[in-house]
Amino acid sequence: MPEKGCAGGRRRMRKFRINELAAVDSPAQEPALAVLMKRDFSAEQRKQLAEEGKALPDGSFPIVTRGDLSNAIQAFGRAGNQGRAARHIKARAKALGAEDMLPDEGLLSKAADSADNQGGTTMPDPKDQTKELEAVQKEKEELAKKLARAESINQLPADQRAHFDKLDEEGQDEFLSMTKAKRKSTVEKAAKEADDPVVYTDADGIEYRKSDDPRLIAGAKRNDLLAKKLADSEASRENDRIEKRAKEELPNYPGETSIHAEIVRAVEGIEDEETRKAAFAAIKAGNEALGKSFVEIGGHDNRVEVGGPEAQLDKLAKDYAKANKVSEPEAYAKVLETEEGQRLYAEYTGDNQVN
Q1: What does DSSP assign to residue 251?
Q2: Rg, Å, the chain Cα set
Q3: Taking the CB of the first residue and of the last residue of the chain, which one, N or C, has fewer CB atoms within 10 A?
Q4: Global confidence as pTM
């Protein structure tokens, strides 16, 4: 019976204490104690609060509001390091201006006093000890790596050390990871390249070193020069051929000969023979249709209607090319998409149907 009486007394005291704690929160907060007691924090929130000093380093006992303080006081008995937890609760109560919520006696009060007097060494938290051991172990591993690296560097022969010092950190790590034989061959190759550098690389990608026969190097340069001149000559002849064909087959097209040449070049680039022939037939037919609308001025080489649609189209295209920094063929194509361009083209060809 006495035990039941004691238990009942504890329950009454606890109920009284809960009601007392629930009453201290401000009206703006949720008044229901059940909500406060269920208040929880995510792992990320606990980590953030620990960094801000509003929770213990392991994220436990997060205290942001008076309600959190109430919860912490109730949960104090489950703390692993009660001295540290007591100091934390006491500090947060002071920061929240809620020191009146702290019990004047009991386990929390005694633990706080004991921690203040003994430096908080009471009952170290096993989790904290584990974290400290992990940090120490990690530091030892990093130190061991640095010592091993320093030892490897000190064991390098003079020539390899000189090569090593010229490398960036990534290159140094790669060099140290090589076998002794590989490091030796790498240094020998680097030394050879330094003493006998590449002085010329021909068009085929063949490298010529300083030690090679000068006549061989000169011959390679001469061959590359001749090949370039030949290529330039062939390109020039090909361009002349295309321009000649453009002049002969497209004399009535608006614009300069270079534009006509690009049209011919584009059509000649069509791989399918039937399509290529059809394209040439189409542009030749267009040329013939354009020729009928010209007014002869002087001779054959100056067949342009002064102030006519061709001149206007030509000006529109040149203005568009200049303003938009595109080639004249592109400009003509864009101008012919406009209503004005279509009108002028219809006048130019004698076709009154404007799309």
Answers
A1: T
A2: 46
A3: N
A4: 0.33
The whole-angstrom distance between residue 108's C-alpha and the CA centroid of its chain comes to 53
The angle, 0 to 180 degrees and rounded to 10, between the axes of the packed helices 66-75 and 82-95 is 160
Q: Is the pLDDT of residue 56 over 80?
A: yes
Q: Tell me how far apart the alpha carbons of residues 45 and 51 are, in angstroms, rounded to a whole number.
A: 10
Mark residue 325 as left, alpha or beta (left: phi above 0; alpha: psi -120 to 50; beta: remaining). left
Distant-in-sequence, close-in-space partners of 85: CB < 8 Å, separation ≥ 6: 56, 60, 61, 72, 76, 79, 111
Q: Is the pLDDT of residue 288 over 90?
A: no
Question: Two tokens at 294?
Answer: 């010209």
Q: 71-117: per-residue pLDDT in tens?
A: 988 888 888 788 888 889 989 999 999 888 888 776 777 666 665 55
Cβ pair 102, 73 in contact under 8 A: yes
- Beta carbons of 305 and 311 less than 8 angstroms apart: yes
Please provide the size of the chain in residues: 355
Can you say how many angstroms the Cα of residue 258 is from the centroid of all Cα atoms in its chain? 43
Q: What b/e readout covers 75-90, taking b as 16+ CB neighbours within 10 angstroms?
A: ebeebbbbbbbbbbbb
Give, as one character, the DSSP assignment of residue 25.
S
The angle subtended at Cα 126 by Cα 62 and Cα 39, nearest 5°, is 20
Q: What is the CB neighbour count within 10 angstroms for residue 95? A: 13
Q: Are 301 and 340 in contact (CB under 8 A)?
A: no
Residues 100-113 as b/e (b if ≥16 CB within 10 A, e otherwise) read ebbeeeeebeebbe
The DSSP bridge partners found for residue 198 are 209
Instruction: Give the residue, 154 or 17, on which the prediction is more confident.
Output: 154
What single string gives the DSSP state of each residue in 7-18?
HHHHHHHHHHHH
Lowest mean pLDDT among 31-45, 207-221, 284-298, 309-323: 31-45
What's the mean per-residue pLDDT of the chain? Answer: 77
State the CB neighbour count (10 A cutoff) for residue 285: 10
pLDDT-based confidence at residue 261 (cuts at 50, 70, 90): confident
> What integer pLDDT is reported at residue 189 of this predicted model?
86
